[in-house]
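New to this. Please check this record:
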Amino acid sequence: MIERAIKHITGTAQVPSFSSYEERLHPYINAVVNELPQVNKIEVHGNNLLYKVGDQQDRPTIALAAHLDKINHYGDEYPQQLPVKVTDDYIEGAMDDCAGLGMLLTIAEMKSDHDWPNLLLFFSEMEESKGLKEHPELLKNNGSGYTHGMGAKRIATHCVEHDWVPDEVITLDTTPLFKGEPGIALYSKHWEYNDLEPSESLIEATEKTVGRFIRIDARIKIDNNTNDYLHYGEVFNNKADKAVVSVALEPAIYPYHQKGERVFIRDIERTLNIVSEYLNNYSV
């Protein structure tokens, strides 16, 4: 499992899929996902990718999400293959969010060997705001028409409009909270950062989800921060006719939003084990 994840993390990290250029990663993602059994690709606007894996009507549906875009730390002169380094302890390169992408693809590949819920796979554009704020000239059309989080919002809106609403969304990204030390964080109270007024049913369902994760691994750090999980939580719970839990499970990254980002291989393996066990035991 970890060898497969390292392969996908390094494979996606080499691609210069900077914000607004996410389509550069589409061939890699499509090549992996199209090999999965029972996969249904759903067309969605923009540089986003959306798939459903499995279609058992009596089973719940869990969405796994990761963002396609990278921050451009190179300017106009960037290598066509970005540098990646793998040691016994860590992977170094554009790990935000190739760590999440690699884990998502690995979990999707594992599904056929497990009795898991149906999966929705969300690959979003424009999660990062740094380039849009600081160097819009590096984006297509000088950043005009692009907004932070637009990909997650487009995916969630499309799912609601076409009745593909999941029971939960688990975003796989990376967290700066551990400042160079290994660790895994769980974000869950998205309404602290978005404009959603949470219902009692959403709060109760979210607490139940957090409890499930903690029972699997009591060392998970419960915290909060901003990323696409906010947008999934806000859009689904404003537009769908049911409470949709949105959380983010994130291994440590250091340094953050810079060249040479590192993630610990032990954190990647631990995160994969947590998600696998969570899906093994999932029931609505």
